[in-house]
Amino acid sequence: MSGGLIAVGTSCLIAIDFQERLAPVISGREEILRKAALLLRAAARLEVPVLLTEQYPKGLGPTLPEIAQLAPQAETLEKAAFSALAEPGIEARWRALDRRQAVLLGTEAHVCVLQTGLDILKHGGDLFVVADAVGSRGPADARAALGRLEQAGATIVTAEMVVFEWLRRAGTQAFRDLLPFIK
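The structure corresponding to this sequence follows.
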């Protein structure tokens, strides 16, 4: 892992399972959704590729509309495996992006986020897990998942860290466009 800054040209955003029937039971969901929205807005503005996953949408429902509408450029990919990369189609799509840095957010932290993150690391990706944009039904599960991912080599970041690293400087039009969502 490089340990360096997250860059627009070398990163992608992977949003795991922000789904209608799962979201209501996630601890701290309002803040998680607010931070996810910030990241999706920034990715759209800065043209960072986005992958959205849905875990068994017949049971857990589709991606939340407020998430889907903020990612018009995103591909929504269905999965049955807990790790997104365990689905051959999703792994192939991630590889086709040719982005070594993966910024990971979503639910549930201790299941699908954890397993996807561990697979990204196994496949040689630089992993940045957004602590304030991941969650589980139980806060202890989310904390344990973040600890395990960090021990495995992930860098734990916040949504604002990602956005400011993507932006690199104040005074740009992109900075002015995103500032209202940061405040």
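The chain has one domain: 8-182.
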